[in-house]
Amino acid sequence: MRRLLLCMVALCALQSVQASATDGGVGPPDQGPPTVEQDTRININEAGPEELVQLPGIGPARAQAIVAEREKRRFRRIEDIIRVPGIGRKTFGRIRHSIRVR
């Protein structure tokens, strides 16, 4: 069984090398980091309550709390959103990939 697994891994590696050789070693171009136009995350330092309610687990009251908290002190990191009353680690875990700061 182990020998079969090693043979399968070797075959996959060989196919990968052959495919690279046939296309001149050129794969898909590196897209790089998303540009501002491509970035669909919500900037929590600039978004209004209408945008913030689109985040999972954020309703109108929490959206207003986010705005009120950032008026006191801007968010420097996305983790700073945990300062907002009603947003804990669980909520942060749900929204972390949908928010950004600039």
Q: What would your notes on this structure say?
A:
It is a single chain. The longest helix is centred in the first third of the chain and has 21 residues, at 2-22. This protein is mostly helical and 102 residues long. 44% of the residues lie in helices and 4% in strands. A two-stranded parallel ribbon has the order 1-2. The mean pLDDT is 81. The protein is built from four helices and two strands, in the order αβαααβ. It has a domain at 42-100: Photosystem II 12 kDa extrinsic protein (DNA polymerase, domain 1), CATH 1.10.150. It has helices at 2-22, 49-52, 60-72, 89-95, and strands at 42-43, 99-100.
Oligomer: single chain
Number of strands: 2
What is the straight-line distance between the termini? 52 Å
Kindly identify the CATH topology of the domain at 42-100: DNA polymerase, domain 1
Tell me the strand percentage band: under 5%
Count of individual helical segments: 4
* CATH class identity of the domain at 42-100: Mainly Alpha
Rg, Å, rounded: 22 Å
Mean pLDDT rating: 81
State the order of secondary-structure elements, H for helix, E for strand: HEHHHE
> Strand pairing plus helix content: what structural class?
mainly alpha
